[in-house]
Design a protein that fits this description.
By secondary structure, the protein is mainly α. It has a single domain (5-127), classed as Non-ribosomal Peptide Synthetase Peptidyl Carrier Protein, Chain A (Orthogonal Bundle), CATH 1.10.1200. 54% of the residues lie in helices and 3% in strands. It has a two-stranded antiparallel ribbon with strand order 1-2. Strand 1 and strand 2 (80-81) form a beta hairpin. Helix 1 crosses helix 2.
Amino acid sequence: MAPTKDEVFQKVQTALVDALGVDEEDVTPEATIIGDLGAESIDFLDIVFRLEKGFGIKISTAELSADDILTNPAYVKEGRVTADGLAALKARMPFADLTKFAENPQVQNFGNRLTVNDLCNFVASKVGA
């Protein structure tokens, strides 16, 4: 039986608290994983491991990473993601709300846009919640 959205959030919250050493009350749906919770690249390996273990799923690096899009000159011009790049990001990460990023698509701002809610949506899509 698939977990409920609340169960997904609780497990994601626990994974983030354990991996990042943040307080539970800081892990809100709106919190950004990098900006608000302080995750660094290396932390994502621990987060992915904890999510895989907690939910019994497999997560490939490409599913949560957009580096190949954000460094591709076909999708980035003068440090900004193009319309084609935004379309590629949305196709790669349909679970993420990229609305705010699309308003000012500076490559350097992308990492600070992934929220706890986006991560919950991703996990929910993997487990059928």
